[in-house]
Amino acid sequence: MRKKICTLIGLLLVVSLSLMPVFAAPKKITLSVVYYYTSEAARNVMDKIFSEYEAANPNINLEIQVTTQAKWPEVMKTRAVAGQLPDVSLTVPQRVGEWAEAGLLQDGTKYIPKNVLEKFDPVRCLSDRYDGKIYGLPANTTVRAVAYNVDYFKKAGIQVPTKASEAWTWGEMVAAAKKAQAASGAKYALQFEKPSFDGWLPFLYQAGGALFSKDMTKVAINSPQTRRALEWTVKLHEEGIAAPGIFEGTEDPLRTFASGLSTMWLGTGNWMMAALDPQMQHEYSFTFLPKDIQQATVVGGGDWIVLKGKYPKEAWDFVLFVLNQENMARYNSVHISIPPRSDVHAEYSVKPELAPFFMEQSRMVPEELMAHQLLPAYAAGRDKLLQELGACVSGQQSVDETIKAWEQILNDNLKK
Q1: What pLDDT does residue 25 have?
Q2: HSE-up of 140 (CA within 13 Å, CB side)?
Q3: pLDDT at residue number 274
């Protein structure tokens, strides 16, 4: 009898177990990520953040593609043509508008908690707003200023401006650079930033020029103010004051300045210190960009955007994880940049004493410059604008030809 009872109980257990619902393991999904970095320290931090995200989200696998900032447009366009756009990507603020305009970005309004969004700098977030929707969030803020060789300037007995209100004029800055060159024996008095039209924009707006009209409906680059800024830039190259090949990309600006070939580096900024510090053969520091009609700089950085895909919620959750307090602080500390969140403090790993200076320089952004550089018409044309600038400073075409070409490029993109 006992044996029969045990057999019956066993049968009942088998039946009951067979009737229980089957719970499948959560399906593992893959999020595709495209990003770039400017230093090995920054890459190491991002790799750690990615690993921590996967550990906290075991049902999600990250498929990472690393590129460079310069190659980002080519990578993304190739993936768009192949129908394989990533779920999320890091990009420069100026490129967000054209992707939003193309309808390829995912609105994050319903995925971003209000108490998180309100912590982000509203001005810096303008790059991620389009047609009333939110397509991304800023990761860091960079600002262009002037790096100078402290040893050379001390040798020449030059005091650099320590307040924005004391910033040099164009003429005063060039005179200081030439004096430092004479005292040090440097090959060039100064150099511009790199192959970047963004890096030349401050000088255009310092002269009172503009890319577009105030209402942003017309191209305004063909003006006497633009001519003044371009002629000044060309003259510096013609007279051998400015290092050649920078705008054209044939010379390495980091190597040129770090090796002591020039006394100052115009338009570089906080983000370059991590790469500059170990290579610099002299003491260096920063001062303010010069002024002409007005003061001007541009702010940049990196923005995480979400593209339309199968997993919009997971993609936005990933972005919010990468940009939480702890991760943003880590990223901006090694990137030596300004955190876009009010509740984040970054301790610079290089020259932390310069943090207040960069904050002061960042306030020198004309409102219309901020708006103009975020227009899709500028983003779509900025590479061609740079090509024309490089051709002009290298003597391949005249100032008139360059300005007309710029006007045509912007007009073509504004009409699209």
Answers
A1: 52
A2: 28
A3: 87
Q: Nearest 5 degrees, angle CA 198-CA 264-CA 202?
A: 25
Same domain, residue pair 178 and 231: yes
Query: Could you report the average pLDDT of every consecutive run of 10 residues in the chain (416 residues)?
Result: 47 44 66 91 93 97 94 95 97 92 95 96 90 95 97 98 96 98 98 95 98 96 98 98 96 97 97 92 97 95 96 98 97 93 92 94 92 91 96 97 98 89
Asked if 364 contacts 295 with a C-beta cutoff of 8 angstroms, the reply is yes
Chain centre distance of CA 313: 25
- Cα separation, 316 vs 293, in Å, equals 43
CA dist 31 and 19 (Å) reads 36
- Distance, CA of 204 to CA of 227 (rounded, Å): 9
Nearest to 170 by CA among 286, 290, 294: 290
Number of Cβ within 10 Å of residue 200's Cβ equals: 21
Q: Do residues 111 and 164 share a domain?
A: no
Of the residues 342, 362, 382, which one is the last residue of a structural domain? 362
**C-beta separation of 69 from 139 below 8 A:** no
Please work out, in degrees rounded to the nearest 5, the angle formed at the alpha carbon of residue 205 by the alpha carbons of 178 and 167: 45
Identify the DSSP state of 224.
Answer: H
Which CATH number belongs to the domain containing residue 339 in this structure?
Answer: 3.40.190.10
Q: Are β-strands 136-149 and 133-134 bridged in parallel, bridged antiparallel, or unpaired?
A: unpaired
Which residues lie across from 281 on neighbouring strands?
A: none
For 397-413, the pLDDT digits (tens) are 999 999 999 999 999 99
Q: What residues does 105 pair with on adjacent strands?
A: 307
Contact status, residue 413 vs residue 219, Cβ threshold 8 Å:
no
DSSP letter, residue 28? P
Rg (C-alpha) for the chain, rounded Å, is 26
**pLDDT given for residue 11 in this prediction:** 44
Do both 186 and 237 map to the same domain? yes
SS3 169: strand
Are 81 and 125 found together in one domain? yes
Query: Under the phi-then-psi rule, with left for phi > 0, alpha for psi from -120 to 50, and beta for the rest, what region is 131?
Result: left
